[in-house]
Model the fold of this input.
Amino acid sequence: MKNIILIIPAVCICAVSLAQLQRAVPSASLQNMTMPALVKVDDMNPFGRAGNNFVNSKSVADGDIGVSLVYDQQTNSSMPGRLFLWPDGSLSAVWMKSDVAGYPDRGTGYNYNNGTNWGAAPDARIESVKAGWPTISRWMGNGELVISHNATVDLVMNTRPVKGTGAWTEKMAPTSPSANAPLVWPAVITNGSNFQNIHILAMTRKVSNGGNIYRGLDGALLYYRSPDGGTTWDKQGIQFPGLDSSNYKGFDGDEYSWIEPHGDTIAFLCGGNWVDTFLMKSYDNGNTWTKVPILPNYYCKNPENHVTPRFICSDGSFSGVMDKNGVFHVAFGRMRALDDGTGHKYAPGTDGIVYWNSTMPVLDTAIVTDLDTLIAHHLCVGYVASDATGDTIVNFPSYGVSLSSFPQLVLDSYNNLYFIWSSVTVGNPSPDQYNYRHIWGRAWFNGKPAWSEMKDFNSDFIYIFQEYVYPSVARGMKNNNLQLLVQTSAQPGSNVKDPTIPVHNVNMQYREIPAADFITEGTAEAREGRGCLVGPGFPNPVAGTVTIPVYVDYPAHITIEVHDIMGEIKITSDRGMVNTGAAKFTIDCSSLEKGIYFYTIRIGGKSYTQKMVRE
Done:
């Protein structure tokens, strides 16, 4: 299979790296294959699944924190908030679990990390009723809130006043405005001085899922808000402006994603195969809303069995952040869909993570239609990459999304952007000849004109023959690390979503990814030492503290070592990721004996050493 080498000049915020990875091009048959649109339902038939035992939890290093067992689908499209990072470095994680055929015990698996260790893997859901699709958020100070949905009684709300400990209090709230169309697929955020404001997106149940038409929509996207932690709801069943039956036939499950709130600014992303892609934002805490178009879709009201050409759209998986300048950054999976007269269909061989930000105009469908053109216009974050041997895609199970999908975005305190996604990865296919999905990432470092190179975070041998899918990344950074929750398995694909995939075990794994790992050796921003300066320490000789000036022209991980004339290290200081520009580092040398020493500044993989005298 021919591989296309892309050499793109870096020209703007969304420019690609000069050292671009080759793209693995699927065969024409895989690219042009179409499948009937997956019916997004809450409960699938069990197909004779069997249960197994939980795995004990592990430390904050790579490890399993619980097992989802026979239930192996964590979302239909966008990943909801499943991992929450607290200011003190502790973590709360939730996922969907079930270990009984038919899923009568399905519900929220929960685990808590106190900053050092995870608790025991859960042996039961937190809800009293069968539930699914949990989202976790901070609530009423240092409490926790989990919203999920039940098959028959709308949304399930579980809260407790202290994170990581105590009993959960459960109630069914809020409720659907229509008894014949209960609420499903919730997504939640909280904000306010005490995290007392709860904001929920949820859908009325579709006809295909046992619901009914609501206000002319087969699946209406509704908004709920509580100003007092869920005691009362001052916004109930609100239909957003422009999201009604005059513009849409209906919405679908999980094709929307909240952006982390900033004060009274709240926003979410929405789109799918048969819905245009847009940002919905509010600057007054949900009282008024503005729709910002991202990618048009001219078939939003196209009914089933009416012929359309093959057209470009979103695959329904989104993630977004708002940076410190008020700019919204968005990533979503790219998809193609059509109707050949026999029903809505999609092309699972479509590839590409699309990038857009709110300083840009609406995306041109002609540009997004061709992946190479999208890359050339610096609007593609990621895609399936070829390897050194030139391997291409053999085959893949369908999750109902693109070959590269489930994006996650994180913004650090320096306004650097980190992108994570799950992508079909070439080489070492499974015994049933499916390529595995791995977790990939890249970054845009503030002030730099180029993306970092795409990186496979599961390229090591220990990850071989494992599927990594449904990534959920905590918002914010801990010790300059991204926090990742992901579903892993030896079997590609989801048996819940596709009964042709054999029954298999799945683990929920936690992993920390250092920000420095996004700087790949050989890329433009990793050319070690280029333009970096380390000045002489002052004062020198030193009696107490010494201040060392440093200038770096690219974001880099910095460590400082002080060693004696024999080379023995006396002081080590890890300063983490440092952004572009000048910085000063102070080292306390008062514990050193009098004599000659050397301090070494390590910037990425480059070392700078200077002499210092302790008087």
